[in-house]
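Need the bound structure for uridine-diphosphate-N-acetylglucosamine, inputs here:
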Amino acid sequence: MKNILITGGAGYIGSHTAVQLIEAGYNPIIIDDLSNSEEKVLDRLEEITGRKLTFYKGDCSDKSLLEKIASEHEISGVIHFAAFKAVGESTVQPLKYYQNNIGSLLAILDFMKANRIKDLVFSSSCTVYGQPEVLPVTEETPRQDAESPYGNTKKICEDILMDFVKSQAGIRVISLRYFNPVGAHPSGKIGELPIGTPANLVPFVTQTAAGIREKLTVFGDDYDTVDGSCVRDFIHVMDLADAHVKALAYLGEQQVDFYDVFNVGTGNGNTVLEVIRTFEKVNRVKVNFEIGARRPGDIVKIWADTAKINSVFNWHPSYSLEDSLRDSWNWQKTL
Ligand code: UD1
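Answer from helper R.:
Posting the output first, comments after.
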């Protein structure tokens, strides 16, 4: 069984990917410093998969910890999720973001080179496209200057990966550009664990429906969209997790020194107001909301062209927006 090192494997997307990897016959080895996750996620993963998981608590840029892991397991690939992701915080503490998000990637690449580990899947984001002129966005859509230091770290990391592969480092890399991950494992045992007030839409919706937040503010209803609110491509986290499994399999078929990028979205755009209404309908709960001011720096509309990932990986989303919002609510009830 192939051992796959998952940095940030106790986090939202990492934990769901661990489940999908086990399902596909891989052995995930998780490293996570639990700075934005909890150790009980590991117990939940064991409940879901019926398997004992290998977990190392620590920072994935800790070289001695990485070497210890390599001495205990033969690692055949890495999925690098671990990163800070709060857009607002990154504008206030940019160095923290550059240090952590870029430093950890560099440490992982050094580690891979030293240990002749060939395959890497990297968590990138549709944030690299900024506000595209033409929709939907394909992988050929030009990247734009990042709106935030967080976004810039994703762009810089993509560039580092491209340069590293070009240098004939002997590795194969795929950057997955995630659109908006939502939903949770259908069991309700794992999901997104926002610390403090959620910045993202769906956790705010579920917390408002649960009465934890008094009111959701819709950031603007006067944009040039069908109902005036912003448009995003909301992808179920299980489908997103599955894209990582497909990416690893595809890397295995390539020559070394391979780099490519793939959009991971559903291919559909939904507005913020559609998300709220769909959430209310599928879960039969009310969401108290009001229309507020636009959020500075918001992208008006973006959704993915998924032709590339559909045809190259034979990956297709199997969950609808309704499924995603049902699973998000199910998870909120667990919490
Ligand atoms: C944001 C980041 C993106 C990052 C992603 C990580 C920005 C501009 N973009 O994406 O770079 O990769 O998070 O998860 O910050 N909304 C409300 N009310 C709320 C919360 C959100 O109306 O309380 C709206 C937003 O205005 C937006 C939509 O919901 O139109 C989605 O917002 P969010 O979940 O924060 O995601 P993104 O902005 O797409």
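Comments: The longest strand covers residues 119-125. The first helix runs from residue 12 to 23.
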